[in-house]
Every structure is written in structure tokens, then in C-alpha cells.
Amino acid sequence: MTEQLIEVAHLKKNFGKHEVLKDINLTVDKGEVLTIIGASGSGKSTLLRNINLLERPTSGDIRFHGKSILQPHFDIPKYRAEVGMVFQQFNLFSNLNVLDNCVVGQTTVLKRDKAEAEEIAKKQLAKVGMGPYIQAKPAQLSGGQQQRVAIARAVCMDPEALLFDEPTSALDPEMVDEVLDTMKQLAKTGLTMIVVTHEMAFAHDVSDQVVFMKDGVLAEKGTPDQIFNHPQEAATQHFLKRYTQR
Amino acid sequence: MRKKRVWASLVLALFLFIFAFALPQNTTNTSAAAKTAAEYDKDKTFRVGMEAGYAPFNWTQSSSSNGAVKIQGSSEYANGYDVQMAKKIAKALGKKLVIVKTDWNGLPPALTSGKIDAIIAGMSPTPARRKQIDFTNTYYKSKLCIVVRRNGKYANATSIQDFKGAKLTAQQNTFHYQAIKQIKGVKKQPAMNNFAAMRTSLQSGVIDGYVSEVPEGITAQNAQSDLKMIKFKNGKGFKTSPDDVDIAIGIRKGDPDKAKMNAALAKVSNKQRDKLMNWAVEKQPKTSSTKNWFQQIWDQYGNMILKGTGLTLWISLFGTVVGFLIGLLIGIVRTTPMPDSRGRRGVLHLIDWLLAVYIEIIRGTPMIVQAAVFYYGLAQAFGINMNRTVAALIIVSFNTGAYMAEIIRSGIISVNSGQFEAASALGMTHFQLMRKVVLPQAIRNSIPTITNEFIVNIKDTSVLSVISVSELFFQGETVAGQTFQFFHTYLIISVIYLVLTFSISRILAWVERRLDGPTNYDVMANPSTLATVDDSTAENMNTPTHDVHNTKEDQHD
Ligand SMILES: Nc1ncnc2c1ncn2[C@@H]1O[C@H](COP(=O)(O)OP(=O)(O)OP(=O)(O)O)[C@@H](O)[C@H]1O
Ligand SMILES: [Mg+2]
């Protein structure tokens, strides 16, 4: 029996008069990998940022374990620790070295003691192949290395779900694979993931569910096979054609 | 933001308006001041304010020789005609004499606010002064003279009208300066703050002479051979009113001791007064010319200057550190995101507005005014008597705080928004993300501006001389006033300022480099971690590499 972890219902988001998300409905089961694809400006980032509450939805509801995250007095910091986020621009804390980037969340939010946090951090950094660089400052690393650290930082919090917003878009082509590989490893551990990406091969291979987003609505949903091999909507076909021709 | 500014300025205007009306009221009925005076009666001290830099009436010396009296809160001594008179009065009152060294312009407010009990500083009872304070009978009668260059054009003048076309000046806020008008066709120059400045201007030819009183004239002539005092015969000199040439003791209105003081003064005959003045002219500090100018100044006043340097450094260091903490706190509060609850939002808006008002008021007024309003205002309006150094520390801290608040705020704003988002995405609260992530970066980015603020503080503590804090500049003023070595003294003082500010900018540049850490990292820094790393990297990083190839092949199929 699969358990619903995140549920988005009739979600709307306006920036002023500009309606960016129009009636989004989505469920993500525990352990599932959901990929969101779509053209630039279609609202993919906005959707992720709403799920993480970096933006406040205009209307509709988002439920986590069946409980609305929009209710008053909801413990947002705790929720955010459980649903982590990896950003396109990595956003490593530039004042901290690699190790401390992975330790600071654990000690301040989860109240782990420093030794334990460091041990966990070293383990996760080793898993993403960043073990030798724990002394380095973010500015001294390549983009791909930074993004792997960012992933380790999110994983150190023992999240139930991770949100990825185009984690490889800011990377040079030769660094894309090292990050995608790391993400594949994570998917295998049974972590719930929502991934916004333009890497169609990754979406095809790793996802349980793919949604195609267009102008603030989910134009088409399905398994990778349905979306990539038998798209129903003209917009989906058009979009995929551009990407596979590359 | 614009709207906020407007409001803040309105409040500032209102604040000044209220203050302007509150103060004169208190000076006329002096109820608060009288109360503090009563309190001090119990102390049995007689606190006398003077410049201690207007020889032969009053001067500062470093030993207690010739019956000098210790200056309050200092290791120096005051002496002169005024000091000897003050001793007689204190004795008649049965109180202990305390000399409070105060700037000339700070004397009346110090008296009305109850910080001193009397002004014995060669002061004349002018009608304007009589509006604010009361005076005893005369304790010295003086006469106006003009000090000129011995070899100058006016050296042989006999009448004030001989000074047609001459550039003359006098001390600010004195009747000397008013008297210049009596000379037809004179070129009246802007008034100056002290006699040392006037003597130097005269010697350098900036002015042709300055109006002074006979004792000061004799002193100038004795101390500097190139100067000459011109006295005028009756009918040829300045017309003066007794209000002016009479020199009397300034006291608060309604002072119960007035009769006792007058009785004490009556016992000193005119002959005794002249004798005392001659003694004072004789005993006042002299400039010996055997050593070079630096040694001369340093031997006699080095200690004073060093103490002033220490105080300047202490006040500006304390002010910068506390101001930084104030700025940090305000910076955090003013960048707090608006909470959802309406009540809390209201409170935050109110606090934010109050802080904006504080910043506008402090930044919109000169520190010299803040110091005067705070120190004399508190005493006058509420009878609060504060230690000068404490007042200085408070003023500089709050002043710096306002500037630091904006420095820190712009530092926070300049931190990339991704840093905020990543920290909140980990579940950090506003306070946590500020402390661990944003402020370290904001502060690091602000260090050059903070250094600047520290340097400004070192220099700006000089305005505290208005409340007679004996920092470096105030000490310099005193030394210059006594050695008449205006230029040389200030040369020494500016070198000290330069050494202070230069060292500070070096030290903070070093701190800045330390904060940045090494420019490269050592991959082999922690061998114990590397051991574990190697194992896991081996198994974790190899498998995905295969996957990549598979994926690509799949895609092409
Ligand atoms: N804070 C904001 N204020 C106003 N408009 C915004 C804001 N954030 C996003 N938008 C608008 O919302 C729309 C969707 O933006 P979003 O970043 O979600 O697109 P996206 O699908 O992630 O695009 P991309 O693939 O380029 O990242 C855009 O038109 C954008 O201009
Ligand atoms: Mg986006």
C-alpha cells in the first residue's frame, strides 16, 4: 500500500495580477520520484517554492502526511527540515567551509551535537565524493562539486522528501553527469524526490511519474513511458521535439 | 521608505521644538538647578568653573606649587588670580574649593544646570549674561587694550582711532569683540575662540591686533617679545560700561550665598587686588627657550597629551564596539520578515518606525549638538548630573549606533538572497540564519565601512571638548593656550591622530584578511576522514559512472 506524502490541491499563485500557477493538482507518494518538465517561465520553480513555503500560495492547499501546511501555527521550520531543497545556483553558505555547510543545519535546526553532526556530514560528503574537500570554501570549488555538497547538505537533515530546482542547469556539460549520478544514488535509497529538470534522459530513467507544465497548468501527467514515448497533448509533443532534437 | 523618512523628520522637528520650549523655562526659574545646588550644599564643596587657560586670571599647571588647586577629575592643577580669589571665597563660605575646568562657552550652561556653583573666570557681568545668571560685586576692574606686533604699523598708536583700516579681532562672546565697533573704518575680523589662536594669528600677520584686557596684554607682551600691548589714556581708549570692565563672580539666580561672597570680596582692598594681579602675572607659566620646541612642549605637557590620547582611544574604541552592537541589533530587527499575525506585525512596524526616528535624529544633527543637549540638557531639565566621560561614552555609542545600523542593514541587504533561501529551506529561523549565515557575511562585507566609522570616531571625539571631556583635542587646546605655541602643539596633536587612525586601519585590514581564511585549502588536511572517504568514494562513485553510460546508450536506442 503506497502512502501519499505530498498532496497539492487546487493550488493558485499570483504575483500581483500575474497568475503564475492556475489550479495545480498533484500527489506524490512516499518513495516516489516525480519529474516536472516544461518551458521556461511555465511556473516550475514557483510550484517548488510554494511546496517549500518559500512563497505563500494565493489559494488552494498543500498537505504533508495529510495535514495542511498552510494552517495557522504550522511548524514551518520543522516542515522545511523534513522537505529539503536543492537550488539551481547551489546557494552554499559562502562564509562556511564544506563541512560546516553540512553541519550548521543539523546543529541549529535538529539540535544534534557537533560531533555527531560532523560524523554524519563526513559520511554524506564521502558518498557524493566530496570527502577530500571538507576544508574548502565554496568559492574554491567547481560548480559540480558545489552542487554535490549542496545535495549532501540537504541529505544530512534526514529529509523525507527533497525538492530539486534544475540542479544541473547552471553547470558546464561535463559536470552535469556527476550531479545526476549522485541524484540517481539518492533515488535508489527510496527518498521521495520532486525534480524540475531539462535532462530528459534522467527524467526518463529515474522518474516514477512525469508531469509536463505549460503556462501555470499541468498539461499532461503520466509514467515516463507515456510522456516520452506516447505524449497525448500537442504541446507536450512540441516541447519534447525541441529537446530530443538537440 | 520615503514616507517613513518624512515622518521621522517631523518627529525630529517636534522633538527639537519641545526641547526649545522646555529649556528657557528652566533657566529662568531654575527650580531644578536650585534643588541640585541645595544638595551640593550638603557636600560642603564650592565648585568653581573656569577655563584654566586664561592667564593670568586662570591657568593649568602640572604641580601644586604656588598654592595651585587640583582640577576635578584630572591630575593637573589650576592657579591664577581667579583661583586665589576662589580660595578666599571658599574659605569665607566654609566650603572646600573644587576647580572644574570648563570651556568658556560651556560656563553659563554648566552653572545653570547645576554642574558648578560659581563662575570665577575673568567674566564680566554683561546685561545679556545677567538675564541668565546673577553676579556678585566686582573682584577685579580691568581696562581694554589692543595687542599688536612690536615692529608693526600700529605699534605706536595712542588712540583707538589710529586703528583705522586695521584688521582687528577679539574673543568670541566677549564685550572685547563688541568694542571693536567703536573704531571708525576698522576691518573687523571674525571672532576667535581663544587667546592662543589670536596670538598666533597676530604673529603670522593674519590680523593686525586683537582687543584684550590689560592683564592678558601684559602677559602676551612678556611671553612673546614680538608682541606689544597698547594702553590708551582716558578719552583716547574704548568707552566701556562698568558691566564690562568689572569682573565679577557668576552665580545662579537666587543663590543664598551671594551676601557672604560680597562680604568676602569687600575685605580685599584695591591695593591687594593689584598686588595679587602682579603676583599672577609673575607666576603664570612661561615659555623657556633653551630647548627645541618639541622638547619644551613634551617635557611639560607630554603626560597631559598622552592621557588625552588614551581617553580619545578609549572613547572611540568603546563607542565603536557598543555602536556596532547597537547597529547589529537594529540591523537584525529591521530586516525581520513581516510575521503573519496582525498584532505582531503592528508591534514590528512600531519598533521599526521608532528605530527609523532614532537613526534620523542622530544622523540629522551634529554630534557636538547632541553632546551639548544630552549633557547640559539632562542636567538642566531633570537635574541629572552625569560624569563627563560616561556622558561621552554614551553619546559616541549612540551616535555610532545610528550609522552602524545602516551599515549593517546594507551589509545584510547585499548578501545574496539565495543564502537566505537555502538557510530557510534547511529549517532555520530568522534569528538562526542571521547568526550563522547572513551576519558573518554582512559583517565581513562591512569591515571597510566599520573601519571608516572607527577612524571618524577617533577624530570626532574632539567635539566632546564642548562638554569638557579631556580628550586629545581638549588637552591640545589647553597646551596651546598656555605655551602660546599654537601651530606646534597642533602639529604634535595631528601626528598623534594620524598614528592612531593609521594603526587602526592597518589592524582592521589584518582582521579582514584573517576572516577570509587561507586562499587555498589543503585536500589532505584531515587524514582520518580521508580514510573513510576513500572506501565510500570507491564504491559510490564508481557505480554511477557506469549508469551514466547506460543512460546515454538507452537514449540513443
Ligand atoms: N517573485 C516574483 N514576482 C513576480 N513574478 C514572478 C516572481 N517569480 C516568478 N515570477 C514569474 O512567474 C513566472 C514563472 O516563473 P518560474 O520561475 O516559476 O518559471 P520556471 O518554469 O521555473 O522557468 P525556468 O525554466 O526559466 O526556471 C514567470 O513569468 C516569472 O516572471
Ligand atoms: Mg525555474
Write the layout of secondary structure elements.
The complex is a heterodimer of chains A (246) and B (557).
Chain A: E1 4-15, E2 18-29, E3 33-38, H1 44-51, E4 59-64, E5 67-68, H2 76-82, E6 83-86, H3 98-108, H4 114-127, H5 143-155, E7 161-165, H6 173-188, E8 192-196, H7 200-206, E9 209-214, E10 217-222, H8 224-229, H9 234-244
Parallel strand pairs in A: 3-8, 3-9, 6-7, 7-8
Antiparallel strand pairs in A: 1-2, 1-4, 4-5, 9-10
Helix pairs in contact in A: 3-4, 3-5, 4-5, 5-6
Chain B: H1 2-29, H2 31-43, E1 45-50, E2 59-61, E3 69-70, E4 77-79, H3 81-93, E5 96-101, H4 107-112, E6 118-119, H5 127-132, E7 134-141, E8 144-149, E9 167-169, H6 175-179, E10 187-188, H7 195-204, E11 209-213, H8 214-223, E12 227-230, H9 242-245, E13 246-251, H10 258-266, H11 270-283, H12 293-334, H13 342-364, H14 367-382, H15 388-414, H16 417-425, H17 430-460, H18 472-483, H19 486-516, H20 527-556
Parallel strand pairs in B: 1-5, 1-6, 9-10, 9-11
Antiparallel strand pairs in B: 2-4, 3-4, 6-13, 7-13, 8-11, 8-12
Helix pairs in contact in B: 1-13, 3-10, 12-15, 12-17, 12-18, 12-19, 13-15, 14-15, 15-17, 16-17, 17-19, 18-19
Bound molecules: adenosine-5'-triphosphate and magnesium ion.
Adenosine-5'-triphosphate binds at residues 15, 18, 20, 38, 40-46 of chain A.
